[in-house]
Design a protein that fits this description.
CATH architecture of the largest domain: 3-Layer(aba) Sandwich
CATH superfamily of the largest domain: Type I PLP-dependent aspartate aminotransferase-like (Major domain)
Strand order of the largest sheet: 4-12-11-10-7-5-6
Strand content: 15-25%
Distance between the termini: 41 Å
Number of strands: 17
Radius of gyration: 22 Å
Length: about 450
């Protein structure tokens, strides 16, 4: 079975069939939607992909965090097929379907927001989830402003593009929505020189307080939007000391915390949500936005918040045609069932232990490996040129291409593009994990030799 195989490259990449389809894509689809990988999928199982030329790849991107349960999970396929035999869709404002209700009930039970009594709404994607989370926070608080962070990625719509830090994602798209202000994210590896971890945390807290002084007074702020582990920003986890202090600061000023768990959610962290850790630390968020792995590849997003928050939102402000689509709800219910039954968060911890041990050993023997960080199976390897931490994006780009040629699909991250991200499906086998680690290390060292 494909799900148990190892990478095997039989042709030059892209193969002849793949190249023909890639050329057709170039003619039919805009170049602004880039895809530098020479892979055209024929089928996928578990963490493995077979292309149209018979090449087999190990996928450590997983649809950018969408495939925590892997490709083609049989039970999810069956659940969607059974639902499709009954009906595809029932618009949430017109007809209620039970899957919609059961999924909302399930998320209300497991999503760790601050308020015990919760409600959930459904949308189609992560960007939609964040858009609606902001609307909910503004509607509940009666306040106009939102604070986001350096390095943040929240989507590519006009609002979430404004919330996103990297200018390349919305260059030339102005005028941009008002009321979005940015603070510095606690990026400890690149904290001001000479600051230890604890001092750096307090430095970043002071930078947040400066936003209240220089951009928006706290009484005008509806919410802070925080990725528990930054994705595009470089797989940077929020420090415990910082989020604990931020929770107290927000409580003092009546500000809500929105956790963007679009990429971090559904088992990847070793818990169902990183916010489960926050809750244990005494600082749960007020609102959680989620998507990606919620439905195993079918588009679905959700926003869970306390009832007292939702009841302040006026009718008509939130909603949408496809939110809570029947096929997506059927998939999500089965995905959550499998994650809980098969203990995929525990599997994430085991994979994480192996990867951190391996990556940390590289850090000792390869000067270019500057930092290794993350939570659970969301791990970033930051590559640098020299001891002064100069980013080395060229090395990451070269390593990605080298790894692809050997059958491992990986992706970059970080403001400077100098971070390799690990988002492997949680169903990867031990043998596949070992092979992937070997390919990646070889790709990095070979690329260093080529660039040196």
């Amino acid at each position: 079975m494909l799900r148990n195989e190892l990478p095997s490259i039989k042709t030059a990449l892209p193969g002849p069939k793949a190249k023909a389809i890639i050329d057709r894509r170039a003619a039919a689809s805009p170049a602004a939607i880039r895809c530098p990988y020479p892979v055209v999928i024929k089928r996928g199982e578990g963490a493995m992909v077979e292309d149209v030329d018979g090449n087999i790849f190990l996928d450590w991107v997983g649809g950018v965090g969408v495939l925590n349960i892997g490709y083609s999970q049989e039970e999810v396929v069956k659940a969607v097929q059974e639902q499709a035999g009954r009906y595809f869709h029932a618009m949430q404002n017109i007809i209620t379907h039970e899957g919609f209700v059961v999924l909302a009930e399930k998320l209300n039970a497991i999503v760790p927001v601050k308020e015990a009594k919760r409600q959930t709404m459904f949308v189609n994607s992560g960007a939609e989830a964040l858009e609606n989370a902001v609307k909910i926070a503004r509607g509940a608080s009666g306040r106009p402003n939102i604070i986001v962070f350096s390095g943040a990625f929240h989507g590519r719509t006009l609002l979430t593009g404004t919330m996103t830090a990297k200018k390349a994602y919305y260059h030339g798209m102005g005028p941009l929505p008002d009321g979005i202000y940015r603070a510095e994210f606690p990026y400890l590896y690149r904290a001001p020189k000479g600051l230890g971890e604890s001092d750096a945390v307090w430095y970043y807290l002071e930078r947040l307080n400066a936003v209240f002084e220089e951009a928006s007074p706290p009484e005008d702020v509806a919410a802070l939007v925080i990725e528990p582990v930054q994705g595009e920003g470089g797989f940077i986890p929020v420090p415990r000391e910082w989020i604990t202090a931020v929770r107290a600061l927000c409580d003092k000023h009546g500000i809500l915390i929105i956790a963007d768990e679009v990429q971090t959610g559904f088992g990847r962290s070793g818990r169902m949500f990183v916010s489960d850790y926050w809750t244990e630390w005494g600082c749960p968020p007020d609102i959680i936005a989620m998507a990606k792995s919620i439905a195993g590849g079918i588009p679905l997003g959700a926003i869970t918040a306390g009832v007292s928050i939702y009841e302040k939102v006026k009718p008509g402000i939130i909603g949408g045609t496809f939110g809570g689509n029947a096929l997506a709800c059927a998939a999500a219910l089965k995905v959550i069932e499998i994650m809980e039954r098969d203990k995929l968060p525990d599997r994430a911890k085991k994979i994480s232990e192996k990867c951190f041990s391996e990556f940390k050993s590289w850090q000792k023997e390869i000067n270019a490996v500057g930092d290794v960080r993350g939570i659970g199976c969301m791990v970033g390897i930051e590559l640098i040129k020299s001891a002064d931490k100069t980013p080395w994006p060229e090395l990451v780009a070269a390593a990605i291409q080298e790894a692809t040629q050997k059958g491992l699909i990986i992706e970059n991250a970080g403001t400077h593009g100098n971070v390799i991200r690990f988002l492997c499906p949680l169903v990867v086998t031990d043998a596949q994990l070992e092979r992937g680690l070997s390919i990646l290390k070889t790709a990095i060292t070979a690329s260093i030799e080529k660039l040196s």
